[in-house]
Structure formats: structure tokens, C-alpha cells
Design brief:
Distance between the termini: 37 Å
């Protein structure tokens, strides 16, 4: 029954290029990139889908016009016979609200740099969940920008090594301090049990953004997870419709 309603999985990939062309025709300023590779059989005329990237023109224009220099990256795994990861990137508007920017299946950093003109502006801060793959990719694609990590992920990594009950409060104090004087004060008042913790946090760098948690990314991921079991075009449409509704409602 599901096949009759949603169509055939393989056929959806076959018309993915047509879907991208339709998006570009109907959405001014949109950027759609599809990457494929040849099959192992050199005599085959078909190509195999690898990844897709989509950035709606309206979202791109709004970000470049007046949004803050903050970008969050996160992802969630797809369901179904063909596994992959849907990656999302979002910013923060002038009201500290969520502003989704682009989405892709397994690939978008280089395309994102072109759409948001990141290479001409080195003031952006990227906030990540410390996944090694994203960290290495960011360092390669956009080395001049600053990279930050969500405090929750840092805390849980530290919690495995240090079991002190006051660790959470101390970590939060280190993350929220905004002056060098405050940083020196924390260093002086830290007890001997927190010396190693303080040194560990110091290795992450002094500069930080005032957004410390991954709540913004988790909200968007929570919304798009509802379509993870859909076929690829239906899933891409599911995400696009959600982003367009956000623009209208906000």
C-alpha cells in the first residue's frame, strides 16, 4: 500500500535531478546541488546518487541581510533501506529566534560557504557537537572562522573523567564568564579538585559565543525527524515545507 501512495524508492532517485530543476524554477535564488558518481560497471549508463544540498533563496537573502554571525551545525540519521545523514545548518535572528538556513544529505560545508559568503567574512562563529568529522571538515573548508562546542557535550565528556558533584556549576561558571578579570578570579578560587578541570577547559580556547547549548539545533532536528522514514523526495519536501512555514509564521 505504501508503494502505491508514495511511489518506488529507486524511481525517486531517478527523478531527483528533475526535482532539483523544479525547485530552481519555482524558487528564485535557491541553490540546489546534486552529486553523483559512476557505477563500478564501466559499461553502465547510469550514475549512483551520493549527496544533495539545498539552500532556499529567501533564507539565504534574509541571513545575508541582517542576521548575527553565528551558525550552528547538527545532523540526524535517516531511516529506510538507504542509510544516510541529513545535515542542517541554522542561524539566530535579531530576536534570538531560530533561523534555519540550509539542509543536505551528507554534504554541505563548501556549498554553504558560497551561499552565505563566509569566505569574505571571518567573523562567523560555528558551534558544533564535537563530532570529529565535522571538526576536520570545518578546519579544511573555512579555517579562518572560530569554532565553538556546545557546553552540554563538553560537560558530559568531562563527567566521564571527573565525578565531583560541583563539576556542573564550575563548568557553567567558566563558560559564562565574559572578562579576563572574571577568568582570573575563577582560576584563583578553584579548589585543587578543579585544577585539572580548569586546565582542560583552558585548552578549548578563551573566545566563545553567548549561545552555549544546542537547544536551537535540537528543536529543528526534532521537527525534521518526523520524515526520516519517507522516500528521499518526500523527505526533502517535508523539510522544505517546514522551513517555509517557519518563515510565514515568524
Amino acid at each position: 500500500m505504501k508503494k502505491h501512495v508514495f511511489g518506488n524508492l529507486q524511481k525517486q532517485y531517478a527523478v531527483l535531478k528533475d526535482y532539483g530543476l523544479e525547485l530552481m524554477e519555482r524558487n528564485p535564488g535557491i541553490n540546489v546541488k546534486i552529486d553523483c558518481h559512476t557505477e563500478p560497471n564501466i559499461n553502465s549508463d547510469t550514475r549512483m546518487f551520493r549527496r544533495i544540498y539545498i539552500c532556499l533563496g529567501a533564507l539565504k537573502e534574509g541571513f545575508n541581510a541582517n542576521l548575527r554571525d553565528f551558525i550552528g551545525l547538527d545532523g540526524t540519521f535517516m531511516k529506510g533501506p538507504y542509510h544516510g545523514q541529513i545535515l542542517t545548518v541554522l542561524g539566530v535572528d535579531s530576536n534570538n529566534g531560530i533561523y534555519p538556513l540550509a539542509y543536505a544529505i551528507t554534504w554541505f560545508l563548501e556549498q554553504l560557504g558560497d551561499d552565505l559568503e563566509l569566505y569574505s567574512n571571518s567573523n562567523f562563529s560555528f558551534i558544533l557537537d564535537r563530532q570529529k568529522g565535522i571538526i576536520y571538515a570545518m578546519a579544511k573548508v573555512d579555517p579562518q572562522d572560530e569554532h565553538r562546542f556546545y557546553l552540554r557535550h563538553i560537560y558530559y565528556n568531562m563527567k566521564r573523567q571527573w565525578k565531583d558533584k560541583e563539576l556542573k556549576d564550575f563548568t557553567w561558571a567558566c563558560a559564562t564568564v565574559t572578562t579576563l578579570i572574571g577568568q582570573d578570579l575563577i582560576s584563583k578560587v578553584s579548589t585543587s579538585s578543579f585544577n585539572d578541570v580548569y586546565n582542560y577547559l583552558s585548552l578549548l580556547g578563551m573566545a566563545h559565543t553567548n549561545i552555549l547549548l544546542d537547544t536551537l539545533c535540537e528543536v529543528v532536528n526534532g521537527k525534521i525527524q518526523g520524515g526520516r522514514d519517507k522516500l528521499i523526495i518526500y523527505y526533502l519536501e517535508y523539510i522544505r515545507e517546514y522551513l517555509m512555514k517557519r518563515i510565514c509564521n515568524v
